[in-house]
Write a sequence for this structure.
């Protein structure tokens, strides 16, 4: 208290973001991370340029309501396959997280991949960690303005290229390129190129670790997927403590201090700015940068590697070997996840690869019930929605059965080009006195003429006037 007034304590509910300057590091996990950067980006930027049967290998044609994935053509009626694919992705995430921790976040997540790319541009333009820190502390100058401007121009250009590639999965990339050159993009194409580019620029260039720490829900519920046998980034406190700096030749310090020399290299290389020595934290994305950094330090001071490493809680507690860790990896929950995932994958690909490339929906004309026509025959009218899901043209033969003397009036053949869908009006007749008064079950059969093994059969109702 001062002058009888109580001292006022100021509590900040929201802390200002501290800029993070990750140091570049070389090592096993850094190389693995760059491998996935190259792999994912070659797939993402390369697929729109691959051709398959005269079209893009992967194209989601929303206007025509067709999804082309190499030799597979999916229609809105095939939504079940998308649902199955999402379930496979979810169970894969559960399985890999239970075994390897946040391996997805650290190596293949788009946020991690694009942040790595944007930081590479940043290092090439502004310099290494210490140079960037000095540059940011300096007042604005011509040199600083030129470097910052160059960096953001490169970032924005790469982000727009990313948005252009993303839209290329929905509009043929050749058509999209011509529209960009002539500035004739449609409104939705302009929107998605700019929106996806802006999201890439903002997330990877500015927000970076904030996306992982505050926006991504995975960090919040990852603890529910971990157990004591999940591989996580760990710091060996038993070996590392007490910390303290020492020279390589200081034998006395080596006897009294732990292996950690308190160099803070593990903190400097962390993309989220945490200290792994404080234990596992939800901000840790499992990228292994701290493992590479600590191993290099251990090499320099002549100490064994592994002070920071991928380990499990049980392995840390009981000092297990790699073989023991591997044996405990195949625990009940992992076996259950694996069995479920394997079953779904087998069923998914089995049904996808053996599905009939022909669909037919029968819609009865509700505007007119059964009616009597010339020669006393009874006629019903239907509309058949026929879809050729194959990428080759076919001719089909239509037959009907279920009532004596029932037949197709007129031509019973229809030709469809590749991946064509067509509504075909069909008149069905039978002789008077055939069938029961009211509704009768009948069956339409559509058979491929050049391949009789491909056929579909659909049930319908034939109405006989009372």
């Amino acid at each position: 208290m001062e002058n009888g007034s109580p001292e006022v304590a100021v509590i900040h509910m929201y802390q200002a973001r501290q800029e993070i300057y990750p140091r570049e590091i070389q090592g096993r996990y850094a190389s693995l991370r760059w491998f996935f950067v190259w792999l994912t980006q070659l797939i993402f930027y390369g697929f729109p340029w691959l051709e398959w049967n005269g079209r893009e290998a992967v194209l989601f044609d929303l206007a025509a309501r067709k999804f082309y994935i190499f030799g597979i053509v999916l229609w809105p009626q095939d939504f079940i396959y998308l649902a199955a694919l999402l379930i496979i992705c979810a169970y894969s995430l559960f399985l890999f997280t239970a075994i390897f921790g946040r391996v997805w976040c650290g190596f293949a997540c788009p946020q991690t991949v694009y942040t790595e790319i944007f930081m590479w541009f940043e290092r090439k333009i502004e310099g290494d960690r210490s140079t960037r820190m000095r540059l940011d502390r300096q007042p604005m100058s011509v040199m600083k303005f030129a470097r910052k401007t160059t960096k953001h121009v490169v970032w924005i250009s790469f982000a727009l290229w990313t948005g252009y590639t993303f839209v290329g999965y929905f509009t043929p990339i050749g058509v999209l390129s011509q529209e960009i050159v002539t500035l004739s993009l449609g409104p939705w194409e302009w929107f998605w190129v700019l929106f996806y580019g802006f999201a890439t620029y903002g997330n990877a260039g500015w927000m970076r670790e904030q996306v992982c720490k505050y926006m991504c829900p995975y960090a919040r519920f990852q603890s529910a997927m971990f157990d004591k046998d999940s591989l996580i980034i760990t710091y060996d406190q038993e070996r590392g403590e007490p910390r303290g700096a020492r020279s390589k030749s200081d034998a006395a310090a080596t006897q009294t201090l732990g292996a950690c020399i308190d160099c803070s290299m593990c903190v400097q290389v962390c993309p989220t700015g945490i200290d792994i020595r404080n234990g596992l934290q939800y901000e840790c994305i499992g990228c292994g940068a701290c493992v590479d950094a600590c191993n290099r330090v251990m090499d320099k001071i002549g100490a064994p590697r592994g002070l920071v490493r991928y380990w499990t809680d049980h392995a840390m507690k009981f000092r297990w070997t790699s073989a023991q860790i591997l044996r405990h990896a195949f625990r009940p929950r992992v076996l259950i996840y694996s069995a479920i995932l394997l079953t779904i994958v087998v069923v998914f690909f089995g049904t996808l690869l053996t599905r009939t490339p022909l669909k037919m929906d029968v819609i009865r004309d509700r505007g007119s019930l059964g009616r009597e026509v010339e020669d006393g025959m009874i006629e019903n009218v239907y509309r058949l929605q026929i879809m050729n899901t194959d990428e080759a043209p076919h001719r089909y033969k239509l037959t009907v059965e279920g009532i004596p003397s029932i037949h197709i009036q007129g031509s019973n053949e229809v030709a469809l080009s590749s991946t064509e869908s067509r509504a075909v009006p069909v008149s069905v007749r039978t002789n008077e006195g055939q069938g029961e008064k009211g509704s009768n079950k009948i069956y339409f059969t559509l058979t491929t003429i050049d391949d009789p093994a491909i056929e579909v059969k659909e049930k319908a109702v034939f109405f006989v006037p009372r």
